[in-house]
Amino acid sequence: MYENIKYEVKGNLGYLTINRPKALNALNTEVLSELADALKEIEADDAVKAVIVTGEGKAFVAGADIAQMSKLNAVEGRAMMQAGHKVMNTIDQMPKPFIAAVNGFALGGGCELAMACDIRIASSKAKFGQPEVGLGIIPGFCGTQRLSRLVGKGMAKYLIYSAEMINAEEAFRIGLVEKVVEPDALMEAAEKLANTIASKAPIAVAQAKIAINNGFDMDLKSASQLEVEATTVCFGSEDQKEGMAAFLEKRAPEWKNR
Ligand code: HXC
Description:
Blueprint: E1 5-10, E2 13-18, H1 29-44, E3 50-55, E4 59-61, H2 66-69, H3 74-93, E5 98-102, E6 105-107, H4 109-116, E7 119-123, E8 127-129, H5 143-151, H6 153-162, E9 166-167, H7 168-173, E10 179-181, H8 186-198, H9 202-216, H10 220-235, H11 238-248
Parallel strand pairs: 2-3, 3-5, 4-6, 5-7, 6-8, 7-10
Antiparallel strand pairs: 1-2, 8-9
Helix pairs in contact: 1-3, 3-4, 4-5, 5-6, 9-10
The chain binds hexanoyl-coenzyme A (HXC).
Hexanoyl-coenzyme A binds next to helix 2, helix 3 and strand 6.
């Protein structure tokens, strides 16, 4: 069904793989359009409790497609950026957890895709960077904003102005990734985390994502009120009754996602 990505569901997990290994999984307009379609599938499928995003071959994603972008005028470039923003923002705003399993190069739009995910686990061979200024542009899939929010303004400026590529260990040190594992252990680590999250109350995980992501850009007073509202949604759910009853009855909870 898709030509440039793969989307599979196994158990409770969705697997979204960028699949253009000959071009190091560069994001062209076709990939972005297929990602937008796959995200609609993911959003509509209640059985999918967590999603792992990765790349086929030696790269996660080596950026937006430079061959395609080289021919774009300002209007066309803007349309491509909007398509990229739509994909990144859909991942960011969808109330399901996304884990980036960063298997190799995560550059430019690839680093931006990883940053749009909730949590990043990297292979020790992964490389990160925002090389855009070397191409005459700037990060255009929200990298100027997400990178500074993740690692701070100073480090974001260091990485974006210098276009320096950093390894997984440095990415971990600055808070760009949450965990680094040996290459062979990457998918296992991502699946272990995804399954752990999938075993929790889906409505609670969803409300936690809403509270963290939407609250991050608010003042503390508004954000704390958002947390009150999100927790109230949880208290109104059957799963809150089930989770607490299961604890008291010393048994495993059975989530209903309502
Ligand atoms: C198109 C790409 C590509 C890209 C790699 N390829 N990255 N094609 N767009 N972003 C292609 C190469 O042209 C080559 O094709 C093949 O993939 C293998 O790449 P090599 O360069 O031969 O591999 P290697 O020597 O291992 O070097 C890997 C690399 C290098 C360091 C990742 O490919 C690289 O620097 N790529 C560009 C990274 C980059 O600048 N990304 C940011 C893009 S801008 P052939 O046909 O020769 O085999 C961006 C902006 C986002 O992302 C938002 C703006 C709208």
